[in-house]
């Protein structure tokens, strides 16, 4: 990927395996100004109280079995 060209850098379920220094260097190299970095992990997200019941139903009952 060209230097300074990425507007989004993501890694899902993998960052804990990375050499974080090497990953960080490459992410900085390809990052465009204002880049978003998203590291998606195994944890269950915490959401604001207004959304909590709906999220928990979705996570545990709707997609949980899959």
Describe the structure.
This protein has 66 residues and is an alpha+beta fold. The protein has 2 helices and 2 strands, in the order βαβα. It has a two-stranded parallel sheet. The longest helix has 14 residues, at 49-62. The chain is elongated, with a radius of gyration of 16 Å. The model has no long low-confidence stretch (mean pLDDT 91).
Largest sheet: 2 strands, parallel
Radius of gyration: 16 Å
Q: In DSSP terms, counting alpha (H) and pi (I) runs of 4 or more, how many helices?
A: 2
According to DSSP, the number of beta strands is: 2
Question: In oligomeric terms, what are we looking at?
Answer: single chain
Provide the spatial order of strands within the biggest beta sheet.
1-2
Mean pLDDT: 91
From the N-terminal CA to the C-terminal CA, the straight-line distance is 34 Å
Shape: elongated
Structural class: alpha+beta
Please write the string of helix (H) and strand (E) elements: EHEH
Q: Any low-confidence stretches, pLDDT <50, length ≥5? A: none
The proportion of residues forming helix, as a percent range, comes to 25-40%
Strand portion: 25-35%
Question: Which helices and strands occur, and which strands form pairs?
Answer:
Blueprint: E1 6-12, H1 20-30, E2 31-40, H2 49-62
Parallel strand pairs: 1-2
Quick overview:
The protein is of the alpha+beta class and 66 residues long. Helix content is 38%, strand content 26%.
């Amino acid at each position: 990927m060209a230097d300074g060209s990425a507007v989004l850098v993501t890694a899902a379920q993998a960052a804990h395996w990375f050499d974080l220094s090497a990953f960080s260097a490459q992410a900085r190299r390809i990052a465009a100004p204002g880049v978003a970095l998203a590291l998606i992990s195994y944890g269950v997200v915490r959401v604001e109280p207004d959304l909590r019941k709906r999220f928990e139903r979705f996570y545990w009952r709707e997609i949980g079995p899959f």
